[in-house]
Amino acid sequence: MAETAQPAMPDMERLAVALRQWAEALGFDSVGIAKPALAEDEAHLLRWLKAGRHGTMRWMGRHGVKRARPDQLIPGTARIISVRMDYRPPDLEADDAILADRRRAFVARYALGRDYHKLMRRRLQQLAEQIETTVGPFGYRAFVDSGPVLEKALGRNAGLGWIGKNTLLLNREAGSYFFLGELFTDLPLPEDAPVEDLCGSCRACIDVCPTQAITGPRQLDARRCISYLTIEHEGSIPEALRPSIGNRVFGCDDCQAVCPWNRYAQPTDEADFHPRHGLEHASLIELFRWDEATFLKRTEGSAIRRLGHERWLRNLAVALGNGPADPEAIQALSERLEHPSDLVREHVDWALRQLQSATLPSVTSDQPRG
Fold first, then answer.
1. Domain ranges of the chain
2. Among 88, 109, 170, 287, whose Cα sits 20 to 30 Å from the Cα of 278?
3. Which residues are catalytic?
4. 269 marked among binding-site residues
5. pLDDT grade for 160, boundaries at 50, 70 and 90
């Protein structure tokens, strides 16, 4: 980041007030400013990596400590402007109702609409340009889950919330159903104060996790997390964890849905985040029968697209194997037994064995045993 002329210090207070107004006009739901100071978070990250809890996400350690040192990642960074954008669509059916119907597919609420990355990056760019019209050229770079950035820690330091026991950023007025973005800048803006941690003695998120991936307050073993297994993990899903995945085919919102602070989550007016292609009520069989061309067409502009058709089928096969042994489900799975992918065939075979074992007559104590 090249050094640039900056306005005098007294102007920074007025600029901070103005940029909040500009951010709100651009559709951001809150904005905060923090210094690039993350020493404790760096220590936590290094312990997490050393323990191997990042699983196959080797990119988590690829940039070394730069992830926790913004001023090394982007030299000259003096402040981080953090923004929040709510994403939960209005009028959604309760998560529990979908999870209870094992013939339906559960998709994490953030992925029901269009991918957020481009939308938020474009608006952060617009925010930067608005600042530039006031102060002249300055150094900046926008991030939206697009680089080695500890976005939750930066959001916490900027006063957007506190990091909850489920490791997500929580906001007392908005819960946790929101995206985060950052504008690294060389402007010495006035920083915001962190807010109080309001989790208290609650451990609802820890207790509800289907795979016990939250091993303690703010301690996540990604290798057991359903979001990791169904989105980030590229290989075979461990058999011992497959039954706990249920009908979750892309991500998991259990630790959010149970959080008391999400009673205050605000539905979004952003049309791009509203459900597309009926994903909010789709059946497993319907999605499993998408060929690759259909998958690519229906997931265009969606966060799901990055999964690829192969892992999409992998996830759906697991969900079908956890569902009722309907003839239609068995038929749909059988049609994929000769799929060219070893990964798909393995999970299809497992699913069929699950359903076929469920159809075998049970043996009672008064029946003869062979």
1. 9-90+110-185, 283-358
2. 170
3. 145
4. no
5. very high
Helices 9-25 + 116-135 axis angle, to 10: 140
CATH of domain 283-358: 1.25.10
Return the bridge partners of 79, or none.
185
d(CA 59, CA 321): 31
Q: Read off the tokens for 310.
A: 């192969």
Q: What's the pLDDT tens digit per position in 212-244?
A: 999 999 999 999 999 999 999 999 999 999 999
Query: DSSP letter at 22?
Result: H
b/e string for 10-44 if b means 16 or more Cβ within 10 A?
eebeebbeebbebbeebbbbbbbbbbbbbeebbeb
Was 67 annotated as part of a binding site?
Answer: yes
Residue indicated by tokens 């339906």: 104
Round to whole Å and give the CA distance between 299 and 280: 14
Over range 104-132, report the average pLDDT.
Answer: 97
pLDDT band at 4 (very low <50, low <70, confident <90, very high): low
Is residue 91 a known part of a binding site? no
214: β partners: 220
Q: What is the DSSP letter of 360?
A: S
Would you say 253 is a known binding-site residue?
A: yes
pTM surpassing 0.70?
A: yes
Residue 10 pLDDT class (50, 70, 90 cuts): very low
Q: According to the annotation, is 326 in a ligand binding site?
A: no
- Yes or no: say if 122 and 68 are a contact pair by the CB < 8 Å rule: no
